[in-house]
Amino acid sequence: MFLPLSMLLARAGTGIADTMTTVFGLVWALIFALFPLFNRDRMRIGDLLAGTWVIETPKQGLAEDLAQRSVSKDNDFQFTAAQLDVYGIAELHKLEEILRGANEAAQSTVARAIMDKTGFRHRDVSPKPFLTAYYSQLRAHLERKLLLGKRQIDKHDA
Question: Does the pTM of the predicted model rise above 0.85?
Answer without folding.
Answer: no
